[in-house]
From TrEMBL:
GO terms for biological process: amino acid catabolic process; carbohydrate catabolic process. This is Mitochondrial enolase superfamily member 1. It comes from Ictalurus punctatus (Channel catfish). The gene is enosf1. Transmembrane segments: none annotated. The lineage of its organism: Eukaryota, Metazoa, Chordata, Craniata, Vertebrata. It is an enzyme of class 4 (lyase).
């Protein structure tokens, strides 16, 4: 199967009108339409690869254009050529001598790179007949290291240090895998408290989540302080002092404003404040971390962190207490492996971002790998869960007792139902033909 040659790359703009009911709404993204640039790789055999990158509506067509621009670097290669030198292939995509100018390794070009690489990893896992997490867990540590580009991060993590982390974690590895298959990985829910939801919705959804066994809840904040106080009090009173509360401002504040605002929410004992300021402001996050530490509130960020280099600096500056990897924002599994290993060296827990469409399906594989093969710890660790749009995937996420149950189907869980892709293609799919207005018009 590794001899299969990639003969075609198809990319689709697939969008879901989640803004109509305020799903996904936060202080900065008030009307998101959860969307993906969806990639399908065909080969000269029956083997296929499916990948995606997540967006929130307008602009998805720009990512689609970037994927098409990169496709010439993929078509004609065999899977064996790619995975035998995966580090080299990652560099090929991310460091093309001309296209890197519109990155490098960030923004739209990195989202497009992630979509393609996600499809390659999906194809490799299908070829091996394993879910991606199992492919990673079973991989020889030296082979896994060869998938990672260590450029620009050796001052924080060398190849030898990464290898040492993986080899140290071999002890107890099988027991942890058995534990995950039996119990699943701890999750938290964001679905109860989107910013656009009414208090009645919050109450109803929180009550239902408690009844289903959820003990960790995240609340969107940042638009209005008094509104945040009221909503946090409502949620905290419902979940009680024994359960965990997190808050997320989605980059709304300046540094001093963040410290002041969150200090006024400290009475609700949040475990973390997520994305309190610009996702690029490493020193700002460090200042916020230092100020809020005495209040017992950590800083979490990473879902819009461009690449491994930024994560390196966040860790070096003690600017975050929770690393939030994203399966599509950085350069796919390859770059997330580097970030997971750096987080292990700096002893900072990884708690992935997994909202949107498809992100839960993908990131569950990474967090299972982290626990089984790297961190060997569940202390202060959990993975986000949002209960939207899973029905559009061939192998949807399975949650039981507020835990991710490890997927068993081969692949990276990226494959969408063809009927869903056709119905939601923008702008001519059936769903979008019925929706009019400037918010739902393509950028020309």
């Amino acid at each position: 199967m590794l001899k299969a040659k990639i003969t075609k790359l198809t990319v689709s703009d697939v969008r879901f009108p989640t803004s109509l009911e305020q799903h996904g709404s936060d202080a900065m993204h008030k009307d998101p339409d959860y969307s993906v640039a969806y990639v399908v790789l065909d080969t000269d055999t029956h083997l296929k690869g499916f990948g995606l990158t997540f967006t929130v509506g307008r602009g998805t067509e720009i990512v689609v254009c970037a994927v098409k621009a990169l496709s010439t670097l993929v078509i004609g290669k065999t899977l064996e050529e790619i995975v035998s030198d995966f580090r080299g292939f990652y560099r090929l995509l991310s460091n093309d001598g001309q296209m890197r100018w519109i990155g490098p390794e960030k923004g739209v070009i990195q989202l497009a790179t992630a979509a393609i690489l996600n499809a390659i990893w999906d194809m490799w896992a299908h070829a091996e007949g394993k879910p991606l997490w199992k492919l990673l867990v079973d991989m020889d540590p030296r082979q896994l290291i060869r998938c990672i580009d260590f450029t620009y991060i050796t001052d924080a993590l060398t190849e030898q240090e990464a290898l040492d982390i993986l080899e140290k974690a071999n002890k107890g590895k099988q027991q942890r895998e058995d534990q995950m298959l039996k119990e699943g990985y701890p999750a938290y829910t964001t679905s109860c408290a989107w910013l656009g939801y009414s208090d009645e919705q919050l109450t109803q959804l929180c009550s239902a989540a408690l009844a289903e066994g959820w003990t960790r809840f995240k609340v969107k904040v940042g638009a209005d302080l008094q509104d945040d106080i009221r909503r946090c009090r409502l949620i905290r009173n419902m979940i009680g002092p024994e359960n965990t509360l997190m808050i997320d401002a989605n980059q709304r504040w300046d540094v001093t404003e963040a410290i002041s605002w969150v200090s006024k929410l400290a009475e609700f004992c949040p475990l973390w404040i997520e994305e309190p300021t610009s996702p690029d402001d490493i020193l700002g996050h460090a200042a916020i971390s230092k100020a809020l530490g005495p209040l017992g509130i950590g800083v979490a960020t990473g879902e819009q962190c461009h690449n491994r280099v930024m994560f390196k600096q966040f860790l070096q500056a003690s600017a975050l207490q929770f690393v939030q990897i994203d399966s599509c924002r950085v350069g796919s599994v390859n770059e997330n492996l580097a970030i997971i290993l750096m987080a292990a060296k700096f002893k900072v827990p990884v708690c992935p971002h997994a909202g949107g469409v498809g992100l839960c399906e993908l990131v569950q594989h990474l967090i299972l790998f982290d626990y089984i093969s790297v961190s060997a710890s569940l202390d202060n660790r959990m993975c986000e869960y949002v209960d939207h749009l899973h029905e559009h995937f061939k192998s949807p996420t399975v949650i039981r007792n507020a835990r991710y149950i490890p997927p068993k189907d081969p692949g990276f869980s990226c494959e969408m139902l063809e009927s869903s892709v056709q119905k939601h293609q923008f702008p001519h799919g059936e769903v979008w033909r019925c929706i009019q207005g400037p918010k739902h018009s393509p950028i020309m």
